[in-house]
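Why do we bother with holo predictions? Because pocket geometry can differ from the apo form. Keep that in mind while you read this record for S-adenosylmethionine.
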Amino acid sequence: MAFAPILSECAIVKSPASESSDSSPLAPHPVLKEYYAEADQRQQRVDAMFNASAPHYDWIISVMSFGSGHRYRSEAMHRHGLAEGMQVVDVGSGTGSLALIAQQTVGEQGRVVAVDPSEGMLTEAKRNGVTETLVATGDRMPLDDDQFDLLSMGYALRHVADLKDTFVEYRRVLKSGGKVLLLEITRPKNRIGFHLLRFYLRGVVPLMARLFRRSPETQELMRYYWDTIENCVPPESILEALKAAGFKDVQRHVVFGIFSEYTGLA
Ligand SMILES: C[S@@+](CC[C@H](N)C(=O)[O-])C[C@H]1O[C@@H](n2cnc3c(N)ncnc32)[C@H](O)[C@@H]1O
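The structure, written out:
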């Protein structure tokens, strides 16, 4: 994606050895009172925002990334091992951007399941050509154990209730040796980069949704999008939670200082 002003790094960060056996839940961000009052209202609110914005989602994401989002997603999926014949589950699939990339690559011998709690987003995914969809959250998927070679999740990690439970569930559905690939935006460490990205994602992008799509719901969703990035737990916590769930060779690959690609082997 083209966030040129904040291009700064491309690095691989290996997870340190797990230091804690704390079993308390790990929410990706605290309660965001501007949108919902209590943690148990979060999923319903998030689903409502995505359902209402589903017809506008592909447009706003494409504009937001200056048209480069598809190429980046495809490069990341292939760089991390997407190949013909694979069994893939894409969680938080939304309108199916990653699932469609997977479908094109795995071919007839493979399988791709697109999982998402928002029926509106999955309706758009089917319209875009996704063949197998499943309405579910990432922490509780009605799928058998040991089925998939690759589990992908694009920009949806911030929407699960508990990272620890979710990663245990991911490991359950992956075959032994299967890979988890989590794509996320991480708030820049650099102050100037942070304020530029905040201005763009919390100010400009929501305003474009309002002006060009006449959608106050999408305007709100895009503000929420940034607020979850700004308040997200640090990358180290995500790496720790992957390790605690039993993933091996846990790594974070960083592109341009803000695109985090978390991987681990089941
Ligand atoms: C920003 S969209 C990402 C869509 C797509 N993966 C992409 O790369 O553009 C986030 C998606 O996460 C979904 N989502 C919300 N809560 C979720 C949960 N608890 N588990 C899995 N996905 C969730 C939303 O419905 C939405 O479709």
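Residues 42-64 form the longest helix (23 residues).
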